[in-house]
């Protein structure tokens, strides 16, 4: 994938926030409120290899707004993790490469090596959120959007996202030859 990677076109978390127009305060609050335990910090700081995380998403997307702060927190505490965000609207053709069941899902989180080759991928939302959304009694899109905003303020859902991301980060580290 290195020849197709858009890593260099991605922006930093800080740039993303300065350009964002929607969900900004919510994203900032989630970043501030999400705390890493001592065990979490040990896991994040134990990485041996450089891992790049490219998020294809948009601030309008509740799933992006709910999960990006967790990835930003991981990148903040680990010198081995670099995070970039690529606007899914501006890069729609690239985003098309990552369809799930024929549909574009947002965000797409790519875990890359230093040559921008894909190691692992995570899409849309944590498993626990899928379960809750799929069991929701209201089929209305607006009701589901409201439910997602509320869902991502739940510390348990945030922890689920963190554990899923860390599982893929550690897997990427092992793929790259963690000793």
What would your notes on this structure say?
48% of the residues lie in helices and 14% in strands. It has helices at residues 13-19, 24-33, 38-45, 62-77, 92-95, 127-135, 141-151, 155-175, and strands spanning 51-57, 81-87, 108-112, 118-123. Strands 2-1-3-4 form a 4-stranded mixed β-sheet, covered by helices on one side. The longest helix is centred in the C-terminal third of the chain and has 21 residues, at 155-175. The chain is globular and about 50 Å long.
Strand order of the largest sheet: 2-1-3-4
Extract low-pLDDT stretches.
none
Determine the CATH topology. Glutaredoxin
Global geometry = globular
Mean pLDDT across residues: 90
What is the total tally of β strands?
4
Largest sheet: 4 strands, mixed
Number of domains: 1
Q: Please give the count of helices.
A: 8
Strand portion, in percent? 5-15%
Percent helix: 40-55%
Could you say which structural class the secondary elements and strand pairing correspond to? alpha+beta
Measured distance between first and last alpha carbons:
25 Å
Quick structural overview:
With 179 residues, this protein is of the alpha+beta class. The protein is 48% helix and 14% strand. Helix 2 crosses helix 4 (62-77) and helix 4 (62-77) packs across helix 8.
Summarize this structure as a short list of keywords or feature phrases.
179 residues, globular, single chain, 4 strands, alpha+beta
